[in-house]
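ping. complex inputs:
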Amino acid sequence: MIRLTKAKALWIYETMVRIRRFEERSIELFQAGELPGFLHAYIGEEAVAAGVCAHLTPKDQITSTHRGHGHMIAKGLQYKGMFAELYARATGYCKGKGGSMHIADQDLGALGANGIVGGGIPIAAGAALGLKLKGEKHVVVSFFGDGASNEGAFHEGINIAATWKLPAVFVCENNGFAESTPRATHQAVQDIADRAKAYGMPGIVVDGMDPQAVFEVAGEAIEHARKGRGPTLIEAKTMRFLGHYVGDPGTAYGHDKEVGKWLKRDPLIIFVETLKKKKWLRKKGIDAIHTNVNKEMEEAIEFARKSPEPDLNDAMTDIYASV
Amino acid sequence: MREILYREAIIEAMDEEMARDDSVFLLGEDIAEFGGSYKTTVGLLEKYGAERVRNTPISEQGIIGSALGAALVGMRPVAELMYIDFSAVAMDQIVNQVAKVRYMFGGKANTSLVIRTQGGAGRSSAAQHAQSLEAWFVHVPGLKVVMPSSARDAKGLLKAAIRDDDPVFFIEHKLLYLERGAVPEEEEVIPIGVAEVKREGNDLTIVATSSMVGKSLVAAEELEKEGVNCEVIDPRTLFPLDVEAILASIRKTGRLLITHEAVQRCGWGAEIAALAAKKAFDYLDAPIERVCAKETPVPFSPKLESYVIPDKDDVIAGVRGMLETV
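pong. complex structure:
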């Protein structure tokens, strides 16, 4: 069992705050008309990204989803580049060409958010294959949702990973809704983790609202993968606190009724209790984290606002390495 | 020069590149012990082992996604799709992932991978195993598309494709695998994006791809007896395209016929016709002609199949028709 240390706990808490505040401010900016496109907020699911990525180094890789800001922040991507990307600026992680759904940084092992549901899963298997062939002890974590677990890409990707015993961990963030479709109307299984058995890999359900539980389960799966023992499917039961996208009230499909009981289990609130009980963090420390995060964020927003838009010529670069 | 089979040229290219670069590896259905459905990987398992010559499940999305993921962490995978028809099963990975990640990520992504596949009719393989779908991939910015018509081109271009830092969609032809051609013993890398004039002539330009190159050369020999001297150009890469080679030929001959095995409508030939109409309009002495497959799924019946797929007589008829219009 991999125990939560004070250092990791503080990192997880700060990371969750970074994600939550990033999303809250992004929503404000989006609603103020400052950001183009659309947004999928990760609020409510922070414990999963933070609890898993607490085990990863920059050489470990992740693939993510359309709801990917949280994973990217947890993987070490910085506010400046992320806000600049949301503002479609040349200084963004993707030079303003990717936007919210495609933020990536190969140098930090972030193989991209992904606009195609399930699209990252086979890519994660391949990255794990590449690392294995290179003889490196790094691992790949693929984040995806309950909706993705019905895509062919999920079945093909995890089957390949299991068959080849690849160093990968598949983390299904089951937030109960595939866009607007409740889980019970899109799959007969109660637990997506059960599907792991069909592919010959361990499948574990974890409380995705509890950062410590996620940390412990992910730690074991990642160690398992790092030691060459193959992949694991983790199903984190969680809930997005908002609609599918910013602007979706969630009223048409029962999300608004479902979310109430989950709000009481807000990972930021319950983890503060854990930290206080262990005497690892007091109110002063919590306030300091919030103050620092907010300061860094406002600076990043100003940086993004002042950054240049891409040059028109940039539309035609980065299509090929060379032609 | 020694002569080898087109499929042997493919094997040689991969063999040489695997020997040269440890990051090159192969994955695909039945490519290991079985040597590939068209025997294009024979002997490579024995030489390079199961880590680098990997049999996959029948999971086309998984194959292409795995190739992309491996490329992103620095490998140079060569993924085989047994039939180009099966690319439809893997289309998300090819079109939305492989072709897009470099651009979406602002240029920071290694996407050095080759997707090898084969298409074309002529073996009664029917509608799901005999298509010519190259235009789908030319249409997607981010992909390079190579379509070799000879053993020599197949080898030299596959070597270039494996070394290329961009994703290359490499389309072989099932009927060409058993054609023999001269291939130099010494290493030859044929650059992507360079056409070849397969036959010089002054009266009419035939731009042909894949299996239609050989058919056009035969047609040109027959037409020569009638005093018509055709130039046959094989672009070899459909994107990037050697535009100048095609335009230079049109400026010389004043007539353009395009032939490919794919159906005509929205085929790659339409792009070439538009290009010629725009950039060589003043040189054209006759309407541009296209000789392509009839617009139908490929039928099973050998009689029907040969009816819908263009042959050298269709090329000859097309040429004659153009000369009559003057």
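The first strand of chain B starts at residue 3 and ends at 5.
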